[in-house]
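User: Run a structure prediction on this.
Assistant: Running it now.
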Amino acid sequence: MTAKLPGEDERIKVVVGNLRKKEKEDGGVGQKDVPFEIHVTSDCTLPELWRVLEEEHGYSPPDSLIQTRDDRVRRRSDLKSVFHPYTELEIVSDKSAADETHIYINEALQAASNRDQDVVFNIEYDGKGQNSLIIDDALQLVFHRTVRMPDDDRLHSLPASVGTFPLYNTEDYADRLPENILEKGGLFLPMWQREALWIELSRPKSSYTSRRSSQTYAIRVYVGQINAVSGKNMMEERANRQEQDYLVFPGQPWIDGICVTTGVVRQFVAMPLGSGYTVEGQKTGEEKHGGLQIEIIPAYRKKAQKWRAAAEEEEEALQDPRLYLDESKTPAELGLEAGSKVWVYPSPPTYRKPVEVGDLYWVREESGLGVANLEAFYDDYRRSASTFMGSRSRAMGDSHDLARPTWFNGTLAGSGVNPGGAPSLNQQCTAAATASLSLSDAYLGDPDSPRMAPPPSKARKGRARPMGHPRNSSKPESSPRQVLNVKAMGLAAGGKLVQDIIADRNPPNTWNVDAARQINIHILDPASCESVTHIVPPPIPMSAYEAVLSKLPFFVVEEQIDNRLEGGDFDNVKSVSKMDETKGLVSEPSLDPNQPTICSSLFDLAIINFATCAYEQQHQLWKALFQVLHVALVAMQRFLEWLGLLRL
């Protein structure tokens, strides 16, 4: 009989022959004794058996023990594979009955394995107001300030970053923000009127040591609840979602605007709500949301668990991967019926532990006592060689005195704030449920984008605070609120940029829509943001003309003709310049970054581009004066060169 013993506490008689007593004090070799008998429990491990022979009975520890019945060699360090405890799930035909112990017959096995998958949002601070949004330590979103390209129906290359937008947590300013922003929660950032932005998607540095460093995501970007890829309204989109309306990461490195046609986007440009310029206003006839809404859908974690049909007992052959069920299929697709059961193991399903006495070859005597017969083996040649090498090693220094590497397993930073997220619209349709989430502390990031010009300075560590939750009216206020009249912004359509939206080549069952989470990014005008945060916002951005003068780089990206999406439903959306024409405003002229020309209406261009209030006009006036001075100096230089009075 070689099977496991009925009980772990059953005792077995172990008979070991050829054992040697430890060496005598005079250096003589230990004398061989008659076979030694010892009674131990079946769960006694081999290291414990060795210890008992040496410490309690004075025997020299053998190099190995040989089973006399089959000559199998057993060593103190032998390990065996043991199955983790499994969870038994019953297959049900009622979807509402699916829970921790039941699986729906048409639910993919990997979907059940990922029921606890969550999306965690963090903010990284670099100490200079240049922040980024971190998701699961696997995805980083950076909101870049950039040059607004001319809206002249020409295709322009992608402009570089001229800095990043600061991100603020709505919960930190709950006493000053209006109720409609607090109800949605999330983040807010300042943008000047007619300022442009683009969003970078990358891996954060913290992902290098994260278990989710290879995590894949589908990302939906909405501008005022209008999908930036498909052009459909968020609420209407849910009912008939058949085409790709999301970005895939890794794959999509950035997005600069709404996808108007194949390989072309119109730049994200900030405009006030109520002006009629925004994409939301032109698509829906009203402007009540504004800002950005970003939905994050993680891919299913592959091989998170191992599945098999329930059996009478576990088998060693179960370690063969071919015996496990395909996790991408449903019980129905696997031919399993309602009422049958499946076993779920962690991945991997087995772990290693020391061999026990009960695992040795043993027989049961007539008395009912199990007996294991073993022979001790001593490798005298190896022992003498080891002793010689040991003395030589000690002459050079004890090997055990060498320092061992120490692995840091502590926590660098963290506040212990519970992470969380708001259910996406795939789960609930209420505004409060789709907008609230929490932040936990994050590692510091150092955005490293190929489009950064110049490269950002090295970041410093910072701390993140919990992000805004839905307001609880029953909760008493700790201090009186001083709600400010802030001006919210939306995103309009700017100039045309060459940019592909990469097609999704993943299988349709890749995305865990039940784990999707959504975050709101509110946009405030700089004056409102300063009144809320008491922090001076970034200065007015440079114009396209200034970008050319300062030699700001523009990027030509290789087009992926066979791997990109067609344009969304934006045919009726007018650009900012077209909207200007309908209102009788002068728009900016055409500009070729490779062949810049001096603008004849410098003052008008500067004021039309950005000036909407006295706060901005003051900045624009100084800006225009410096531009005129620059033109005058260039003209004077040319005149002196013509006279031969100035050598370059």
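Residues 1-7, 386-470, 472-476, 590-613 have pLDDT under 50 and may be disordered.
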